[in-house]
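Milestone 3.1: sequence recovery, worked example.
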């Protein structure tokens, strides 16, 4: 069987599109996972949602304050508290079979919500999340410890934990978007 130039180009572009889709899906599925902690989406996260072959359904979306992302055709869908793979599954279920046959969806988190640090650091406040963030990197972003800081007893509260519950974290503890870090004052 002899392949024409047009068929070769179709095959090459098809493989390239498949590889690009796979890369996007992997990025979305592994977003902000640190040391086995699966990142859960929340208000303020900016997402790129791609429905393959459906440009009108794809685009950039923000998870609103109530934890919902509004998508064309299917409307609002709860994103807060779900991982990217869980949201992908939910979107695919909403689209199938009423709107699309066998829909394929990928999600990439474009901008994560910030993390917060307060207490005995030079510049307490909210900071943009960066992939691979740890407690010590967060302290550095906040200008470092003050001279009164209790450096070996940093408290970390995950965004998805109840109010008031936190854990003692060391310098290498991963920080996720929405986390709150408290650097307490030491007692002499």
């Amino acid at each position: 069987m002899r392949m024409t130039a047009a068929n070769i180009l179709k095959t090459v572009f098809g493989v390239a599109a498949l590889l690009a889709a796979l890369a996007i899906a992997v990025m979305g599925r592994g977003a902000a996972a640190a040391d086995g902690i699966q990142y859960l989406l929340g208000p303020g996260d900016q997402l790129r949602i791609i429905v393959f072959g459906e440009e009108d359904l794809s685009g950039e979306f923000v998870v609103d304050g109530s934890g919902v992302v509004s998508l064309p055709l299917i409307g609002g869908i709860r994103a807060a508290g779900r991982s990217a793979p869980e949201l992908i599954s939910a979107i695919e279920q909403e689209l199938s079979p009423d709107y699309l046959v066998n829909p394929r969806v990928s999600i990439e988190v474009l901008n994560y919500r910030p993390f917060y640090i307060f207490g005995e650091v030079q510049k307490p406040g909210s900071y943009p999340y960066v992939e691979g963030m740890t407690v010590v990197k967060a302290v550095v972003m906040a200008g470092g410890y003050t001279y009164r800081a209790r450096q070996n007893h940093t408290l970390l509260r995950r965004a998805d934990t109840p109010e008031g519950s936190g854990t003692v974290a060391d310098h290498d503890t991963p920080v996720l978007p929405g986390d709150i870090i408290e650097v307490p004052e030491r007692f002499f």
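Residues 8-34 have pLDDT under 50 and may be disordered. Helices lie at 5-29, 84-95, 135-141.
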